[in-house]
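so my prof wants the structure for this chain in the tokens format not the other one, which i didnt know existed until like an hour ago. anyway here's the sequence
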Amino acid sequence: MDTRKLKYFLAVVDHDGFNRAAEHLLIAQPSLSQTIASLEKELGVPLFHRIGRRAVLSEAGKELVGPARLVMRDLDAAQSAVQALRGLRSGLLDIITMPSPGIEPLTSMTAAFTRLHPEVRLNVSAAFTPEEVIESVRSGSTEIGLAGSSNPIRVPGVNVLDLERQPLILIVNPQADTFPAGSTIQREDLGGQRLIASQRGSLMRWLVDDALAHGVKAEIVIEVAHRTSILPLVLAGVGHAVMPSSWAPTAHKAGLRTLQIEPVSHLDVAILSRKEGLTPAACAFLEVAERHVAREHVDTNNS
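here's what i got, hopefully its the right format
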């Protein structure tokens, strides 16, 4: 088995079929099929079930995805380590993030990283639960993961660096701003209000559901899985939205008012990485993350 065959195998997985994978690899489709057939012969098991024009992973294929990604990641790490002798001048860094950490602190850290290493390209993919982030980092699909949870994240076998705590805020519908002047409200103040809610399982949805369970007569107008839709919905007057404070700067730029909700609930944001075998680009990004934490501590102590 050689790395070229594993690369081709992962291309079929990632591009959902042989035709798109061949286009991505810039090779002829028959050549790709022959390579996969050769890999299947070496392993003695089929890796894909051919259903019409579709290629569906077999059980053996599913088992190979994680180890194959780790092999390719380790190869990248070896190549990058040699390149690092000349300085970090190129490379690709794969990151996965949940929506709110993907606004902040990812934006600030990415800005700092790209200033230091402008020739490294970042590839940022999306996740919606901490479990998705953890699995992606563990499997080697990505090197760096950003996750937010109601409690500090602790994962055996994975490095976790706590980045910051984001209090939950209310982004106020400007067409229904009946709240008193000031910067804070109580959960009881949500009574009689129309709310845009995140999907179940999120901390933001938990706060809304907890308020409803304690007798607050708020109304959930719409449940939104894609959080990029939330600010436009607030601007359109659909309702108020409970979100982490990372959304506040964007909301303010859009002319929206935000209020901190008391008692305060926090989203604990952390950055996750493998314990070993990281590329120089990933190590450099973690250094940026550590400086971010140091600044957060200074700001907290000065406030």
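also thought this was worth mentioning. DSSP finds eleven helices and twelve strands in the chain.
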